[in-house]
Write a structure and sequence with these properties.
- There is one protein chain.
- The chain has two domains: 118 residues, Rossmann fold, CATH 3.40.50; 97 residues, Orthogonal Bundle (Arc Repressor Mutant, subunit A).
- Helix content is 39%, strand content 20%.
- It is built from eight helices and twelve strands.
- The strands form three sheets. The chain has a five-stranded parallel sheet with strand order 2-1-3-4-5, with helices on both faces. It has a four-stranded antiparallel sheet with strand order 6-7-8-9, with no helix packed on it.
- α2 packs parallel to α3, α6 packs across α7 and α6 crosses α8.
Amino acid sequence: MAKADSKLILIADDEARMRRFMQMNLDLEGYRVIEASNGLEAIDRVREDLPDLVLLDVMMPEMDGFEALHIIRETSTVPVIMLTVRDDEEDKVKGLELGADDYVTKPFSPRELASRIKAVLRRTEMDAPGSAGGLIEVDDYLQIDFNHRQVFVGGKPVKLRPTEYRLLYHLVQNAGYTLTHEIILSKVWGYEYQDENQYVRLYITYLRQKIEPDPANPRYISTERGIGYRFVNFRQKQAG
């Protein structure tokens, strides 16, 4: 039975049978569960109940999961796992671009869903350690302050999504060294994601678009083909 301080999970799916299946298994995992049967209702439940995580089905009446996610992201950073019957790369990319934290394809086992939920919740609760040593001046164009979770590009602050921030943190902390796809997945997403190399490629692209002067010819994040990625070496300057 879920405790009063247990994480609150919103299940948004138009199939009552699927909602019952997920609720039964999430109850066994100790979560509290609320439900929505369409995208509009999901938006209202996010605003009113402030869940800790949302399971959002893509194919729903009145408003699909993509549109609902777009509206949710205008006001909320709640973790969202998209659910779909389509194992389509374009759908996955679209969901991640809109701000989804993960993607699970139906049918899935209770164990798989529980594992993904735990991994996403763990990531969202995990702040990068404040041991980066103050302001990092990579060069005149890029400065990073992990202690205050700030990134400056061309003298202007740039907002990174939590996953982009964690990715940048681990790349910078290992500047000059190549991180393999497996290491990046383990550090940024969790050990459950060892086969999700497309996540690394996609978020490297996002990060380059935000911090590189010319993303097509990256200055800071280099690709070690077939191995992984390496952040340029630099000399760190302490903030005064």
